[in-house]
Design brief:
With 243 residues, this protein is of the alpha/beta class. The protein has two domains: 16-205, TIM Barrel; 206-243, no CATH class. The chain has nine helices and ten strands. β8 (152-157), α6 and β9 form a beta-alpha-beta unit. The longest helix has 19 residues, at 208-226. It is elongated. InterPro entries: Aldolase_TIM (IPR013785).
């Protein structure tokens, strides 16, 4: 039987430094959303990262009032399915339904409502869209059955270090509900979250400052080598040979 490590992988030089999901995520069962199997979601709104990762989908949720132009830009830029944030603590009511409707028209695979969000608001959103409503769950006090009855199709569990415990709690009562959950910082925390019952893992990538720092350290070493007299002479000889 072919394992993940046995799968042939073809890459290019220019894309060699793209962000790779932790391989342990691929042991998750995943979920099929609108015909696409999704095991990993990258949690970001950074277009450069979205275009340079191997995640199955994007969880585009941010701490500001959702704006159509932001969702549209992410959806148009991404080459993978996008789940768009449409409201929660600050943004409520008819506005969330309008943003959700526009997100669906732009091609979103689902819309995410943050906590807190009234169930009546979820019902309103579900009445105007056909794509899934993903309800964020942050603690055990959430009435999961009421969320599902209101129209939520998927749960997004985000409870920091308590995420595996909360996933287990939900899974015991709702064995069939699709769950996206934060995987945490290590392979072990991701494994624990999957074992608890998460179908799909959301992964927070390193920030661009961290990526730049590592890359610039490499570039400085390369610049020092290229600027050496020996290297310059070798480059000149290679150029003369081409002529």
């Amino acid at each position: 039987m072919m394992t993940y490590k046995d799968i042939p992988r073809i890459n290019g030089t220019l894309r060699a430094k793209s962000i790779q999901m932790p391989e342990v995520i691929w042991s998750a069962k995943g979920m099929v959303v609108l015909g696409r199997r999704i095991k990993s979601c990258i949690f970001t709104t950074d277009i450069a990262i979205i275009r340079n990762c191997n995640a199955d989908a994007v969880l585009a949720v941010y701490p500001f009032t959702p704006q159509q132009i932001i969702n549209t830009t992410i959806i148009n830029t991404a080459s993978i399915p996008v789940f768009c944030g449409v409201g929660g603590g600050t943004t409520q009511g008819v506005r969330t339904a309008l943003i959700a409707k526009d997100a669906e028209a732009d091609g979103a695979y689902g819309v995410v409502v943050n906590s807190p969000m009234q169930n009546g608001n979820i019902e309103m959103i579900k009445r105007v869209i056909d794509i899934p409503v993903i309800a964020t769950v942050v603690n055990e006090n959430t009435d999961i059955e009421a969320r599902l009855d209101a129209g939520a199709s998927i749960l997004n569990v985000s409870a920091a270090a308590k995420t595996p415990e909360l996933v287990r709690h939900i899974r015991a009562e709702f064995p069939g509900v699709p769950i996206i959950a934060t995987g945490g910082p290590t392979d072990d925390t991701i494994r624990e979250t999957i074992a608890a019952g998460a179908n799909t893992i959301s992964y927070t990538p390193p920030g661009l400052d961290d990526i730049f720092s590592a890359m610039m350290a490499e570039y400085r070493k390369e610049a020092a080598r290229v600027d050496s007299p020996e290297e310059k002479e070798m480059i000149l000889e290679e150029m003369l040979e081409l002529i």
